[in-house]
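Bench notes, afternoon.
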Amino acid sequence: MPAKLSTHVLDLTSGKPAPGMTIELWRRGVAPVRLKTVVTNADGRTDAPVLAEAEMAAGEYELVFHVRAYFEAHGAASPFLDEVPIRFTIFDPAAGYHVPLLVTPFAFSTYRGS
């Protein structure tokens, strides 16, 4: 697996990818820093890795998925979830890290993918 950080989002209410979801990447620490903001494409993925090989660094990170805005834009009434933060550690910057989100307006799941 090439060195990079990637993600994708699946909308489990429709059984399809989640296009147009905003995702923020934060470097965690004493003073957290937002590194970038990306938006998912029609396949529920980002057009480029969230972190490319040259950007990979060991440390604590957080992906923040803007779930409520996505579901409201797609007609869901009163989604329970707002922002879904997923905190994780990059131990080996030479490795690949894939952090998918499986989500409904009321629940979510994640795992370290390949």
